[in-house]
Amino acid sequence: MSEGKGKWIEEVRERAKKSIDKSPVLGLDLDISKFKFASKYSGSISRDLEEKASEVGVDISGRGRAGSYLQVDSSILMESSFHEGVEVLPIFKALELYDWISDYYWKALDVDIDKFTAITELKCSGGVFIRVKSGVKVELPVQACFYLKSSGLSQNVHNIVIVEEGAELNILTGCASPRISEALHIGVSEFYVKRGGKLTYTMIHSWSESVDVRPRTGVLLEDDASFTSVYVNVNPARTIQMMPIVHLNGESSRSSLVSIVVASDSSVIDVGGEAHLNGSGSKAEIISKVIAKDDANVVSRGVIVGKGCNCRGHLECRGMLLSSKAVIRAIPQLDARNASAILSHEAAIGRFSEDEIYYLMSRGFSEEEAVSIIVRGFMDIGPVNLPPLLSRYVGWILDNVSKKF
Amino acid sequence: MLEISDLWVEVAGKLVLKGVNLRIEYGEVHVLLGPNGSGKTTLINAIIGDPRFKIIRGSIRFKGVDITNMPIHERVRLGIGIGFQIPPKIMGVKLRDLLREISLRFGGKSNFEELAKSLNMYEFLDREVNVGFSGGELKRCEVLQVLVQSPDLAIFDEPDSGVDVENLSLLAKVINDFCGLSDKPIMRRRSALIITHLGYILNYIKADRAHVMVDGVIVCSGRPDEIVENVKKHGFEGCVRCLRERVNG
User: Fewer beta carbons within 10 angstroms: which end of chain B, N or C?
Assistant: First the structure.
């Protein structure tokens, strides 16, 4: 490690130390001192692990993927690229290899946002660095899987993704855990999409009832860059709080954040997205679909800040409440700071109507089948900017989820 | 095929049908006329089994089976198909996907793409069901779904209301073909009940029998041309008067 490098990282760590007790602005505060921060997984890739990974779309064989990364607790089991111009490395290795990483390390979001970002810096348990080189366009996805296996563990990962000028990349991330008692997953992700670059990010969450989840995501977009995120949560968790922030700094940059959240049992979920339209002609949409059943409690947020000339933003929050004990709160927020900005939002929460159920039953469907059809329709996200393989995969996940209603 | 005896039905605590008797034989096409609010739509909702329409007396038999207390989807699987007057929107569900599922449930034999073409609905297959459809499109879409079910008894609730002449003649042609109305009577296997407020569709469909419903009862049954002629001349009040004279006389 060069001397200069030691210095900047010390500064980052100093900032982190100062905010180690800083409570989060949103979501339930957690006592992180009760967790351990490392747990070595010494086993091999078992059949069981393979199955869990495939549940969230990760194919251990790496077939049909441009690269693979697999982390279990704090152990890295796979790190490989199968495509020229695509780099897949553990974050620690990238830190050693590249001096210039200081330009991307805690630059899309601050290390001192709250205790969760701070602890990820101070007790990092891994994470992936993915870079696609200038002009390289890859359709097959790079897959990353984070599996949280040990009770009492706080899995704090720091991911950095760089899409260089004119490059295109699709990432599929699956996060899962088996039934364990008390564990925390913090995923810090920084995305940098350079001029004319294109990145899609599909993330499937499949946690279990006693896991707390705190992703922290920042995205920086240059001129004509585009970022699409599709987030699907299918299983209960104890709590999830996330609010990815996209900075559309470049002219005509584009971003689309889509989240589909199925909240069941007593999950407490606070999810949303934030887009800052700084570049002129930048465009953002944030779409969230929430289904709450049992006694789940969900806050669905969306924030769009319009600063750039002729920027456009649209927010859509839709909720379907399937139990009288569940709660959905939609909080859309528009913040226009340029007279030429056009921002809009729609929010609607409700149960499906009896008319729809009886209508479908009169076509020969049972009541359960009718509910599935309506739920599946509700979760439909229409045409998104994903490559066909991922688009079909997300569709398949939603088909399966809707059959459980 | 369908036999309704002394049917009394309540909707939201209000008595709407007050002893309806109706019999539709194999291969027959019937029309039901009547003023708004007379109970026509209530009757078909009771036939299909919407639980919001509570049967308090009487029975419905279909193909010899008592279906009075059967859930909706079971009746439908026995061979009843309904085209609704005002269908709900099903957001996010493509018409193509819905038709495929319907077709699968009814043996997967119907070629819904061909049927869609015949009803000028082919371009709508990738649209969300009933979302943003015009009046005529909604009616065509209802008839299309019923055709895909290929029921033994097809019921259409006001296929002729709010529909222009072109749409109406198209719908009527499809319904005619479906019921085999141009075949020899002995070749007809399907039956139909068509609800019509004023009987416009009778200009295009040669029905076998017409009924007039007023205030929850069928007050008159007979040849469609005669009945429509009388309704045109005297209005539905004429039917009421005629009934009163019959009762008193």
Answer: C
Tell me how many residue pairs between chain A and chain B have CB atoms under 8 A apart: 66
- In angstroms, the separation between the Cα of residue A355 and the nearest Cα of chain B is 7
* Confidence class for position B233, pLDDT limits 50, 70, 90: confident
Q: Domain of A211?
A: 3-352
Q: Establish if A96 touches chain B: CB-CB under 8 angstroms.
A: no
Instruction: Tell me whether residues B90 and A360 touch, CB distance under 8 A.
Output: yes
Which value does ipTM take for this structure?
0.94
> Sheet holding B14-24: strands in order across?
B14-24, B2-11, B53-62, B65-66
What does the domain layout of chain B look like in residue ranges? 2-84+149-248
Average pLDDT, chain A: 94
Verify whether the Cβ–Cβ distance A363 to B149 is below 8 Å: yes
A364:B84 CB<8 A: no
Nearest residue on chain B to A379, alpha-carbon basis = B92
Q: Do A373 and B88 touch (CB under 8 A)?
A: no
Residue of B nearest to A358 (CA): B50
Please tell me whether residues A133 and A122 are part of one structural domain: yes
Q: Are residues A294 and A340 in the same domain?
A: yes
Burial class (CB in 10 A: 0-12, 13-18, 19+), B220: buried
What tens digit of pLDDT does each residue of B61-94 get?
Answer: 999 999 999 999 999 999 999 999 999 999 999 9
Q: Phi/psi of residue A345, each to 5°?
A: -150, 155
A278 and A357: one domain?
no
What pLDDT does residue A1 have? 45
Q: Is residue A318 domain-shared with residue A399, that is, in the same domain?
A: no
What's the domain count of chain A? Answer: 2
Give residue-wise pLDDT tens across range A218-248.
999 999 999 999 999 988 999 999 999 999 9
Which tokens in the block code for residue A386? 């994903």
Residues on chain A touching B106 (C-beta within 8 angstroms): 364
Task: Give the whole-angstrom CA distance, residue A278 versus residue A305.
Answer: 8
Whether A355 has its CB under 8 Å from any CB of chain B: the answer is: yes
Instruction: Name the CA radius of gyration of chain B, rounded.
Output: 18
Q: What CATH class has B2-84+149-248?
A: alpha beta
How far apart are the C-alpha atoms of B73 and B71, rounded to whole Å? 6
Say whether both A132 and A50 belong to one domain: yes
Q: Name the residue among B50, B89, B105 with its Cβ closest to that of A364.
A: B105
Q: CB neighbours of B229 closer than 8 A, spacing ≥ 6?
A: none
- Whether residue B145 and residue A363 make contact (CB cut-off 8 A), yes or no, is yes
Report whether pLDDT(B229) > 90: no
Query: How many other β-carbons are positioned within 10 Å of the β-carbon of residue B77?
Result: 17
What does the alpha-carbon distance between residue B12 and residue B20 come to, in Å, rounded to a whole number? 19
Q: Which phi and psi angles does B105 have, rounded to 5°?
A: -70, -20
Q: Which among A178, A184, A171 is positioned nearest to A241, based on CA atoms?
A: A184
Residues A289, A392 within the same domain: no
B184 vs B118: which has the higher pLDDT: B118
Q: Do residues A17 and A80 share a domain? A: yes
Among chain A residues, the shortest Cα distance to B143 is held by A363
Chain B residues within 8 A of A367 when measuring between CB atoms: 71, 73
Kindly indicate the confidence band of residue A4, based on its pLDDT and cuts at 50, 70 and 90: low
3-state class of B170 per DSSP? Answer: helix
Last residue of a domain, one of A336, A352, A368: A352
A240 & A133 share domain: yes
Residue B94 structure tokens: 């493509």
CA distance B143 to chain A (A): 12
